[in-house]
Amino acid sequence: MKKLIAFLFILILSIPLASLSGCKTRAASAGDYVYDHATYEYYSTYGALNTSVPNFETFAAIIETHRVANELGKPVKADPGWTYYIGAGAWNQTAIIQTDTYWDDAKFVIDDRNLVEVNQRLFRVTSKMPSIDDSLVGKALKKGDTNVGMTFEHDSLVSVVDNTKMRHRRGFNDSHPQREEILVDKNGNIDSGTPILSDYVVTSSTVRPIDTEQLVIKGGNFTRIRAEIQNRGYINRNILIERSNTLVDGICYEIQNNENPDSPYNGFLRIQNSAHVTVQNSANRAQNH
Questions:
Q1: Residue 14: predicted pLDDT
Q2: How far apart are the C-alpha atoms of 14 and 240, rounded to whole Å?
Q3: For the segment 217-252, what is each residue's pLDDT rounded down to a tens digit?
Q4: Which residue in 141, 167, 240, 241 has the most C-beta neighbors within 10 A?
Q5: Contacts of 79 (CB under 8 A, 6+ apart)
Q6: Cα(178)–Cα(167) distance, rounded to whole angstroms?
Q7: Three-state secondary-structure class, residue 49
Q8: 207 strand-pairing partners
Q9: Strand locations in 64-214, DSSP E?
Q10: Are the C-beta atoms of 246 and 278 separated by less than 8 Å?
Q11: Rg value, the chain, Cα
């Protein structure tokens, strides 16, 4: 078993997972499957097509399936053995995942040959609980404090910023306001794994509640047809995870044409502003840059 675990918090983590073994195609299971519409939402219900031929309908259906599932609180299940085409250009939107998602043996062809919007995520995993901005503004926090001096409705990941103090990164000419990420419980107690490392007078803050129930994303075989554009920055056509307590299990990602150095990609899984995220049993081929 290959496993990558974010035990505490990850501000930004972009994962190509190059060290893992190559993708292993799962056997299609469509033949004997009986659809359970009472339990799951399926992409085919909303107009997805079982084809790798370019079309606009499929990704629109994927977006709509997750929208309805999020509203109803139902898990999403890919149609067993299906292939879904996700093109670029026509549907510059993102599918929002807030419920368990079972891609299983389904295949997804990501065709970036006509890519225009380089920062349009494919999927974004978010919490239904909203973040709270600036509730800690004005508070003085000291290095080694064990409590932030306020209570919360949920255990939370808290970002604190002091823009009166600038931090410089070694080897870079830029600077950024002092910032830390800390885990707190409902009583404001600071987790010993994320201690405050500097003194603050907080000028901005974000409180991100941590979900108590784990969200599961399972399976999925993703193949990318790489963009042919020349792009100075990184392309972010990927899966963005911004929900704490998330498990990604058994995802497979590879690239069909991996020879264009002018279109570098960020990792297929990008994890940020979240805690307790686990990636396991996954095979992803790294991009050439």
A1: 53
A2: 9
A3: 999 999 999 888 877 788 999 999 999 999 999 999
A4: 241
A5: 30, 42, 43, 44, 48, 50, 106
A6: 6
A7: coil
A8: 132, 158
A9: 76-77, 83-86, 95-97, 101-111, 123-125, 132-133, 140-141, 156-168, 175-184, 200-201, 204-209
A10: yes
A11: 21
DSSP 114: T
Written as one string, the DSSP assignment of 184-243 is E-TT-BBPTTS---S-EE-SEEEEEEPPSSPEEEEEEEEEEE---S--SS-B--SEEE--
Cβ atoms of 182 and 142 within 8 Å: the answer is no
CB atoms inside a 10 Å sphere around CB 38:
6
The tokens for 261 are: 């150095």
- Predicted TM-score (pTM) of the model is 0.89
Q: Which residue has the tokens 């000419």?
A: 173
- Residue boundaries of the structural domains of the chain: 3-128+212-284, 132-209
